Amino acid sequence: MDALKQKFAEKAAALFQENRAMLKEHGDKIIDQVAIRQLYGGMRGMKSMIWETSELDAYEGIRFRGYSIRELRKLLPKAPNCKEPLPEGLFWLMLVGEIPSQEEVNWLTAEWKKRGELPARTTAMLDAMPADTHPMTQLSMGILSLQNDSVFAKRYEEGMPKNEYWDAYYEDSMNLIAKLPRLAAYIYRRTFHNNEHIAADPSLDWGANFAHMLGISEHDDFKSLMRLYLTIHADHEGGNASAHSTHLVGSTLSDPYYSLSGGMNALAGPLHGLANQEVIKWILEMVEELGTDTPTNEQITEYINQTLEAGKVIPGYGHAVLRQPDPRYIAQRHFAEEYIKDDAIVSIVWKLFTIVPPILQDLGKVKNPWPNVDAHSGALLMHYGLKEFSFYTVLFGVSRAMGVLAAGVWSRALGMPLERPKSMTSKAIKEFLKKSTVEG
């Protein structure tokens, strides 16, 4: 048993017993109430699941095992001559709750390299698809094509006992995460670069090798950006659509391939991961309409008002939970301030930060007028040459896989059951209200 798996086994066994004792003593205590508006409003804010790897605070933002993004940029191990954290270190942290050593992260980098080869059937399947198939469709199908090698599915069919579910889920998750950069890079090169692929570089870490295989830029800064991007997008507690979808599918004891494919299908929606390409598209449309990539504050203000008057939202602003600027936005801004000078689109992104929130606040209807992670990411990617917007969500998906699969290992270790909430009809709601009025 490898060192990471051994650490997880010890921590999971302890928490499993702790949870059983807690449920025996406190299991009937009420932790939340549900309002009718939440039933009709997408279950917004309802406490309804356990998610061990991260927690989202409305004012402090995302915390991975208690650590903020600002803290992780300092504490997680780094590649030589790079200030940004290695994503491998975040995966280790999410899985066992400990900041790993440099040696432990180096082991994980090497382990993912060993597991990273794509089977020929996956590339053949992708090559058989139309070149203009959306990259997220290709990603989801590529993930499913790997399912034939599922350790979980094979061992379950052989009669694997429940206390070993997590072990098989761990092996599948490690294999899948290891392969995702090669899968995503293959999709990018076949879709946008005439199937001219770039071989993996065995000397590079997980994130840097992904940057290398994309073939966008060999600049070390782009490798640093990719490490940062893959770290800050990795998880956002369990209630977001891609995380919850992965969790729901996994609760049926579907293996990680089925589960992650479901999560990626959710991520592809315009109200979730597709939002990052909507931001840059909106900015470029503004530049085209105004006829300049150095618009004044007055010009930007007028365009914002036109967008709002047309009944549209300002993409990249607002969040279902956050009530402050997204720390992931701030981390990307700090990166740009250090590495990127005089980029017109980046400058517009910064101007929007000062112009948009007051306008949204004046509307009186917006709970969070501040930028989210999507408000900045597209401008950084464009700066380094990745201008194919439809691929942006694939990058998001490669990162998000780490969080949702780490959480999936925990769900299997803690014996989480099939998720099956109770639904109600509108008629039943009316009858409830009628009865409560009479009784009241």
Structural write-up:
It contains 20 helices and three strands. It is an all-alpha fold. β1 and β2 (61-64) form a beta hairpin. The radius of gyration is 23 Å and the shape is globular. The model has no long low-confidence stretch (mean pLDDT 94).
Summary keywords:
3-stranded antiparallel sheet, mainly alpha, globular, single chain, 20 helices, 3 strands, 440 residues
Could you give the topology of this structure?
Elements: H1 3-26, H2 36-40, E1 54-57, E2 61-64, E3 67-68, H3 69-75, H4 87-96, H5 102-114, H6 120-127, H7 135-145, H8 151-157, H9 165-192, H10 206-214, H11 220-232, H12 241-251, H13 256-267, H14 275-290, H15 297-309, H16 327-339, H17 344-363, H18 374-383, H19 392-413, H20 426-439
Antiparallel strand pairs: 1-2, 2-3
Quick recap of the structure?
The chain has helices at residues 3-26, 36-40, 69-75, 87-96, 102-114, 120-127, 135-145, 151-157, 165-192, 206-214, 220-232, 241-251, 256-267, 275-290, 297-309, 327-339, 344-363, 374-383, 392-413, 426-439, and strands at 54-57, 61-64, 67-68. With 440 residues, it is an all-alpha fold. It is globular.
